[in-house]
Amino acid sequence: MALLAALWKLKPILSESSEIQEILKSDFGDDFYWGVATAAYQIEGASDIDGKGESVWDRFTSKKSHIKDQSNGKIAIDFYNRYESDLKLLKNLNFKNFRFSFSWSRILPDGTGKINEKGIDFYNRMIDTCLELGIEPWTVLYHWDLPQVLEDKGGWTNREIINWFSEYTDLCTRRFGDRIRHWMVLNEPASFTTLGYLSGIHAPDRTGIHKFLASVHHANLCQSEGGRIIRRNVKNSHIGTALSCSYTEPHKMTGSYQRAAQRLDVVLNRLFIEPSLGMGYPVQHLPVLEKLERYIQPQDIENLKFDFDFIGIQNYFRVVAKPSIIPYIRANRVKPQDSAEVTAMGWEVSPEGIYEIIKQFAKYPIKEIIVTENGAAFPDQLINQRIHDQQRIDFYKRYLQNVLKAKNEGINVTGYFAWTFIDNFEWAEGFRTRYGIVYNDFETQERTIKDSGYWFRDFLK
Ligand code: GAL
User: Fold this and answer.
1) Is-catalytic flag, 373?
2) CA 244 – ligand 1 centroid, Å
3) Residues near 386 by Cβ (< 8 Å), separated by ≥ 6?
């Protein structure tokens, strides 16, 4: 497992030096969506109040050794109680779009069946507050927090999840579709299937190639089915799905390294976009995918397709690949040089990678690309009520200038969401890694705008 953990968390070797150029909001055009991205388990807290059911992340974090600082999202940043002041703060930073996810177990504590009206009320209040403030809500149906009762029945490995997910999607679109136009079906299916069902370093801590493959296929089917349900239930909808992606290149230009890079490219970038476009699974470049056959039913190939209005791409770093003994994938990432600039996650800062991956995705017949997550964790220090996070400002400038470069070359990139608004619970890292443009004191829940927050405020003015 450590090897796969490494596969995900190590960073590539080449360091990049893209000069920092000044960019202007107007360079991106008037219609460009500027927003911040968040996720229910990482911010809400209130993990067992007002009728919320247990999710796989509640269960996973109850074993302290799963999380590096032994913390959990029971309180997180208490967004459940503080959403009003937080959204006002977001408005003051001049963002017009707020991305959040619904917590499935807050809405359907048993996964299916009985509706928790108090959970629905929370999202109604929060969505209405956004609209009153002139902030457009963007939602993600699934950002990793599956109801534990469904996991007990096999979770994503059980084909029944298509029915469970359809019921949940139908309910959300009926209750919230009158006020939400922008919907994303899944958040990073490649991450939750590999980390949750192959390497077990995330919830629900399951391992094995067949658990992984079954969850991949079922997530793909839910992705397209979710899209169809949104289209049916929400008028004038703008439908996407949010995919993790990392530009992947071979460490050496020889056959075995190039094939290793291709295999990693399949896992990191191709597994959830190509089936939705009717291209099937990229078996040719990752032979273990042949084993998917046992999960594929005849009507599935057709059902995997969905004509998304946009594809959300989420990028943090690029990958430099080498062959390895990791089973099935037989590839790993090359460690970075000591001189490389890395984030607190140990990920190399590689701004040109976002340009390359946007270009790669633009080769697919996709209507619209939105960067639905990009950002960086750095070791922030609160001194005299200020956080001088110049490194994060430079990170944003350099990545944004590469997004702009792709856009200026004619690629239809229509928006950018920073990860993230306020420091929050960063999955297996706990609270150690701070990604916010607003600092959070996790004891007092006091928010302090970082210099990067002020930079965005002025940039977006
Ligand atoms: C993404 C994930 C987010 C956030 C971010 C930073 O993979 O969707 O929830 O954790 O990474 O690491």
Assistant:
1) yes
2) 9
3) 448, 451
Ligand 1 center from residue 254 Cα (angstroms):
33
**223 φ/ψ angles, rounded to the nearest 5 degrees:** -60, -45
Pocket of ligand 1 (CB under 6 A): 39, 42, 187-188, 191, 244, 314, 373, 419, 426-427, 435
Number of domains in the chain: 1
> Containing domain of residue 73, as a range?
3-459
Q: Rounded to the nearest whole angstrom, what is the distance from the C-alpha of residue 255 to the centroid of ligand 1?
A: 33
Residues of the chain with pLDDT under 50: 1-17
Q: Which pLDDT score, from 0 to 100, does residue 9 have? A: 43
Closest CA to 169 of 117, 217, 101, 121: 101
Q: What pLDDT is stored for residue 218 in this prediction?
A: 99
Question: Which mutation among 423, 427, 431 tests ligand 1's pocket best, with the greatest number of atoms within 8 A of CB?
Answer: 427
pLDDT recorded at residue 18? 63
